[in-house]
Design goal:
Alpha-Beta Plaits, binds ribulose-5-phosphate, alpha/beta, Rossmann fold
């Protein structure tokens, strides 16, 4: 028996299947909500030419259901990218990277025509700040980046015993209430040693499918 939140993740994931165009290449994110999406993909795998995963974990899950993987470098256009989020606001801006895959997620999201965010309703937020911002950092820059984040008002915490797929570390940085996510996203982008940060403000979701107790609610931004 799935708990309530898992049920809501699952119905959101199932509803995203309708957005897959026949014979298309799709981007597939990372996380527990995406695990449900991949389970559903198994049932429509013949419809999918290939997938581009945002992590090794998702790559392995896709291989297990015999969906061919594609290299983003070989793909000029990507119709959809489906991924979860740690938080999403009313503009479709998100905080992502709880699963540590934020860098590839940002890259694939940049290429995709449509970013479909699948979440349960607990991820809905009015203002960012309760979930610390995951920041992927080149190892030697860890202390420098932490000091720069403190200058911006953040409280950094190293994600213990964790290395990203790209061989880097993650600092989870609590900034308090974030009133201007895009401005903070750009400031973080300018710090040397940061590979990417988990504010998906400049490139947010195009569609959110939010699992609620009243069914899946769709929002287009
Ligand atoms: C991974 C992510 C995930 O989308 C995010 O952490 C949400 O995960 P979940 O679906 O397990 O709640 O950004 O880097």
């Amino acid at each position: 028996m799935l708990d309530q939140v898992c049920e809501l993740k699952k119905i959101a994931a199932i509803s995203a299947i309708d957005y897959i165009e026949p014979d298309s290449i799709i981007g597939v994110g990372t996380g527990s909500t995406i695990k449900y999406f991949i389970e559903e993909l198994a049932m429509v795998s013949s419809k999918i030419r290939a997938a581009i995963p945002s992590s090794t974990v998702s790559a392995n899950a896709l291989k297990n259901i015999n969906i061919p993987l594609a290299d983003l470098n070989d793909v000029g256009e990507l119709s959809i990218y489906v991924d979860g989020a740690d938080q999403i606001n009313h503009l479709g801006q998100m905080i992502k990277g709880g699963g540590g895959a934020l860098t590839k997620e940002k890259i694939i999201a940049s290429v995709a025509k449509t970013f479909i965010c699948i979440v349960d309703e607990t991820k809905n937020t009015k203002a960012f700040g309760t979930f610390p911002i995951p920041i992927e950092v080149i190892k030697i820059a860890r202390s420098y980046v932490a000091r720069e984040c403190i200058k911006l008002g953040g409280t950094p915490k190293l994600r213990e015993n964790y290395t990203t797929d790209n061989g880097n570390v993650i600092l989870d940085v609590a900034f308090g209430i974030i009133n201007e996510p895009i401005s903070l996203e750009y400031k973080l982008n300018n710090i040397n040693g940061i590979v990417s940060n988990g504010i998906f403000g400049a490139r947010g979701a195009d569609i959110a499918l939010i699992g609620t107790n009243q069914g899946v609610k769709k929002y287009a931004y």
